[in-house]
Amino acid sequence: MKFSESWLREWVNPTVSRDELSHQITMAGLEVDGVEPVAADFSGVIVGEVVECGQHPDADKLRVTKINVGEAELIDIVCGAPNCRLGLKVAVAMVGAVLPGDFKIKKAKLRGQPSFGMLCSYSELGIDIESDGIIELPVDAPIGQSVREYLDLDDAVIDVDLTANRADCLGMAGLAREVGVLNRQAVVEPTWQAVEASIDAPIAINVDAKAACPRYLGRVVKNININAETPLWVQEKLRRSGIRSIDPIVDITNFVLIEFGQPMHAFDLNTLNGGINVRLADGVEKLTLLDGNEITVPSDTLVIADDKQAIALAGVFGGEATGVSDTTKDILLECAFFAPLAIMGKSRRLGLHTDASHRFERGVDPQLQHKVMDRATRLVLDICGGEAGQVIEALASEHLPQPVSILLRRSKLDKTLGHVISDADVVEILTCLGFSVAAANNDWTVTTATYRFDMAIEEDLIEEVARIYGYDNIPNTAPQAALKMSDHKESNIPLKRVRNMLVARGFQEAITYSFVDPKMQALVHPEQETMILPNPISTEMSSMRLSMFTGLLTAVGYNQSRQQGRVRLFETGLRFVPDANADAGVRQQAMIGAVISGVQNDEHWSMESKTVDFFDLKGDLEAIIGLTVAASEFSFKTATHPALHPGQCAEILRNNRVIGHIGAIHPSLEKPFGLNGKTIVFELELDALLHASLPLAHAVSRFPANRRDIAVVVDDQVSAIDVINLIRKVGENQLVGLNLFDVYLGKGVEPGKKSLAIALTLQDTTRTLEEKDITATMDAVISALKTEFNASLRD
Known about the structure:
The structure is a single chain. With 795 residues, the protein is of the alpha+beta class. α12 (423-432) crosses α13 (458-469). The mean pLDDT is 91.
């Protein structure tokens, strides 16, 4: 948003310098990007009048003029500008004047004719206006006055970078209000004579999309002079706001846009077919815009239409067919409030970012339209003449934004700012911002203004009080806090240790989405209820995951399709299980999952190339379990899982509670997930894993240990862990080591049987075990195995 400093000071003129004003605006949250002069430095240029203008006798393109500069004698000046003519008011650089670039004007002769000065163009004075000749000043420009003073060229253009929430400052009225509040100074709005209707000129206005356009004003002005000259003061204000002059009607709508932040549009009344209809486009109609481009208007886009066709994109761009032209005699002025959501995104979709859409997307004051309509009508009548009809309004007040009532608590204000601002200052700040304030019990009930769309919660009001009070005025006091040692349990295992353990074993951590393809998840968890997102990113990411399996298997397939032959991934995160008894109807559980596929080891000359199996991943899992120093609390039990291969699936239990599963992926899932070869996965609850038994110190025995190996034959259905648990129970304190080192099926073992080779290490802390002690223990073990499992020693 660019604006003229002098224009701002017409509204409010604090006794601060330009630099101080810029600093004030920046510190109030409206960052100043730059301050540029409206013209370069020059001196000695005054207003003159061409009283004689004749052809140079020796040059076809030169003219010899006599200029009245308010002195006793006329000045002879030779000029080559094609627009130099009798009676023209011009900018005259007198002898001794210094123009931009340190160019000094001296007496000279041009083709034999004396010249005592120069008639200047805009570019020669360092003014950014395109022109083909010398400056043409208004006929009422006072002769002899400094051009710098007459055109107010000591002014500066201030460029403010506004955030999206401060649409109220996209006009001089809003900026002046901010500066007035910052300086506790009253704002003086421009005044004009209200326009009463002088002709009866009704226009039918129908609004179908009332929620998108709650207020629409139209006013007919007839018999205007479209060829009238836009006053220089209007042109200059527009130029200094970054807008070039086009014609008086467009200039007026642009002027009120910058003045009040309210976009307007003017239609050529005689090109309309019937009345005005505000509606949504039908999705197939075409519209040629003012820039000549033809578009097909999307069906969700708000348009202004007559009884025949769409004539403008509402709040964005006008149409070429109904635009004001050189032949326009009668116009229809439009001033409306369009809901921000109805305009937001439409201009970007069509590649049309305009000043109007920029403001409507952010929100304009819904109570401003009548004032701006009257202001624009007055300017049209004063500049172009004509006769104005009555203002026609289509109103759906129930859809207009209403002021918000917010409770501002003194305790919250003081706590947030860390500083006490007096009650009087708080009330003054909020009142000057246009808010209504009612005090009660050391708190305030604040009713916001309709132009502040960003006011919604108490913190918004606190921010307003702080920025207007001045951040520099709030003492820089460091907060005080007592240091306290963090509470933690030594038995808790940090998740980082688990991650580091898996990384050390060759895994890489994966991070997949919590939302997955419902079709793929249904393959892993058939007939299990899932949580479906109401507004997903895509159909393939519309279901919250029930386990880590879906994401990890997708990642394996992705890597294998890119020539990764050995994949070892793990992931930690939440799973989301629908549960009527849980908060919000969903149970969120922290899980850890891992997957391996391909060969056991990277290719190496001393290692055999072997595909991974169930026990490879089980070994990695047992390494993690070892961190708990409570491996005996964990066990594995044959189970079934819809995603895992029958016979190669086990439940993971801790203290006989199921906390997860491990197994090979079911062959039916290999093709859907793009898996190549055997894939092993596990998943278990993190909360059940991340607490350890605290180690207890025991004396190291000074006496020798004895190892005895046995090979027992049991039924194939007997679990090895059950055999080991029984041996541990029978062996009691003397059994200090137990290891299953071989499982044999084959020759010498009956069908349906298996041989388990187990090493037992026996030791006592008080004495050396004698052979009879060892034999007694071994006999007790063998007897218990025979009784419990019908086991026998293998020959």
